[in-house]
Amino acid sequence: MDNRGLRLFIIEGKELKGADNGGASSDPYVKLKFNGNSFKTETIKNTLSPVWNQSFDVGMVNEYSTFDIECLDWDRFGKHDSLGSVQLPMTVLKEAATFGQTDKWVNLDKKGYIRVGFQFSPPYPLQQHLSPDGNPNAIQHQVQQQNMISSYGQLPPPVHYEPIYLKTYPSKLEAEFILPNDLYQRTIYVTGEPVRASLVLYVNQPIVVRSLFVSLKGKTSIRGKKQKELIQDYRNLLHTTIGPSSPNAQNQKVALDVGKHIYPFEFFIPKHCNSSIDGIGNYKVLYRFQFNADIVNLPDIQLEREITVVNIEDTVHRMTQSQVHEKCTKSPLTGGNIEMTITAPKNSYYPGEDIELQVHVNNSSKKKVKKIELELQRTISIENEKGVPTQVLKVSKKFFPKIQQNQQSTQIVVMETPQNLLNSIYQAGIIKIEYKVRAVLDILDCIDLYTIFPVNIVLPDPKRVMLPNPLDEVSKIPRYIQEWTPRNLLSWLYFRMNCPEVVTSNPEFYQYCLSGNELLSIPDSVLLEKVLKGAGTRTQEIHKAIKIEIDRVLSVRSILKDNQLPHLIPTFEKELVTFDLLPTLTSIDLSRLTTTIGDRIRLQTAFENLKLN
């Protein structure tokens, strides 16, 4: 019988049955029973979409094991009502684990779902599979996993890609990470999806390397001390060069010629990993790429780059449909009542989104209601230290005229949230960031009426692409292609040629990250068949347009070389002299370009021949 250790994670619930406030909310917790033992999560108050994130070591299990999971509504007095239950057989978890899954949504018998995570020890072997999404550059073979771990179990087998070589002429030996779509905005990776990037090695002289390793590491830390290792994985970028079956692969050396060496790579971050957090109350969630090149007879190259990772559950995709409906009343000593009702269609918002609330006031007292004040408060609690609510923003709206006896008024009040607002977070025993709105009704000659209700701040869609202003981008493109940056090339394609398909239809485009200087030296076949292939039917048109830009520079070089004046090439390029300007150069211009009389005469003769032709 196959016995293995198992840790179960009760992660979250959604669409649970409402047992309180007329079915609008519950105080849910989960009870787990297995082999005579009982485990229980903490209670999350006033929600139908709780997040527990608690784990339990249930001991040894086998294929005949079954787990009883029940979600209950906590009550201070009386019996705790059942919100639903489910029996989870071990065979379901085993099958999911062999396909690389680490969690599963289970359906409760009454209403709603519970998300259960699982980690086996030792892990089940994964089913063999090919490279995801059929990328043509992927090498379709499986390799042994080494040092590939995460806090949520074994990672999928690595996928290796063929390196790309471009014959360019770098000025120095250096390396950089290239991330998709990071020329216009910060690249955001989503947990549960492949993490793709490229390592570019610029080689200015022939070198020999012993190894090229890139790694992905993620961890959480509190007060500078590592609290949890989220992921640690690495790739040998020379794997495809050496060959996976080479008996002495670890000891072989590889020669690299002058040029631009591009090494695409891919990692996988489990979907339960935390979103990146940079130093909130001494709490950090940090992910980074690290690169090390061991070069023979030269100093090693070491490089690292932080990346941004977002858990999809922290984004707008997790938005609930829970409505805001808060009501409070007050009875002044002079008699009558003042009632305030606040409503909104939802209680989840992303940073920069307006929180739009409808405030209805019904005054049957002798007092006058002057205004409504709304304050967004944030509380950050680290470990067992309860945080203090702090004001994030405050708005007020006066009632014109004041609401007097037996009058009603309905106002729309808008709170404009900041773009850099932190999102709501709950990790049991580690960190909790929560938001509440405090609404205060200002009543003349009376103690104010107020209510407090929670709201969620979620991250925006991580896959949303925000393009810059086209006019600004086009105006920044230099006339001289040699001075183009990779961003200039991107803007030229997007806005001047109006062909974003070059980029959006070719996932490999970002890997090349070409500057204008590199465009002058790469072969036409690479430009046409690799870089511009996403243009589809417009490929030839785009290629012709970019060749015109290239020829304006290369034609000047050819003329100078044909007239035995190659030493003037740097001067002409420094002065941004292109082919279309040559016939217009005057004798004064030529005297500034060269002080040698013979050179000026040769140039004048060459340019006169251009005019005749």
Characterize the quaternary organization of these chains: single chain
Rg calc: 32 Å
Poorly predicted parts = 128-149, 240-251
Structural class: alpha+beta
Based on DSSP secondary structure assignment, what is the total number of beta strands? Answer: 33
Q: Span between N and C termini?
A: 89 Å
DSSP summary: helix tally: 12
Envelope shape: flat
Mean pLDDT: 86
Q: What share of residues are in beta strands?
A: 35-45%
- Strand count, sense and closure of the main sheet? 9 strands, mixed
- How much helix is in the residues? 10-25%
Describe this structure in words.
There is one protein chain. With 613 residues, the chain is an alpha+beta fold. Helix content is 17%, strand content 41%. It contains 12 helices and 33 strands. The N and C termini lie far apart (89 Å). Residues 128-149 and 240-251 have low confidence and may be disordered.
